[in-house]
Amino acid sequence: xxxxxxxxxxxxxxxxxxxxxxxxxxxxxxxxxxxxxxxxxxxxxxxxxxxxxxxxxxxxxxxxxxxxxxxxxxxxxxxxxxxxxxxxxxxxxxxxxxxxxxxxxxxxxxxxxxxxxxxxxxxxxxxxxxxxxxxxxxxxxxxxxxxxxxxxxxxxxxxxxxxxxxxxxxxxxxxxxxxxxxxxxxxxxxxxxxxxxxxxxxxxxxxxxxxxxxxxxxxxxxxxxxxxxxxxxxxxxxxxxxxxxxxxxxxx
Length: 252
Fold this sequence. Notes:
10 helices, 0% strand, elongated
């Protein structure tokens, strides 16, 4: 009985760490207590997948194992959350380039004030994440990790860092690529206005018409390209799950 309880506590720690940073669930609008309550029934579902661990003789060893499990769960969730954030990166770049950053509004998911485009794509991305059952894939990956990395094993935080750090560069480049069409379009609009301004120096087209034209044209182009942008972003999400496998291999 006691080994089963100890195993359940370790699984709970790993699961709680995952839920603390998982996209959507980690929103500030979701209370931390609610995540812990959600982790309890999920722990009971995952408990049969793990073999009972012997209870350490020293209490400090048990606390170290719990901390290691929580760290592993956070690292697993952070991999997925980092890839998810490439959409926010693209939205921030689009807002900054098109002038939409001026119209900031409160995002209840992050309790921040990004541009209107950032709020829109964050909500759409969260819906796609849950609609595509990617949250279930995260739970399945955690269940599989109970076999490849049983509860109670020492987790190497340095090994996890060597996997997560290169992922940041991939996320940044993905966000820039997603925002590429808007960046190129805004550049062409500004270049055209600059050439017209050189041809007619008396008319300040760049300052009088430029901001309004850029925002209006960017909104139209965003509406046209948004489905393709979300589809391309959804196709990049499996990178996070591929990194999870490398993370578990390096954490053992």
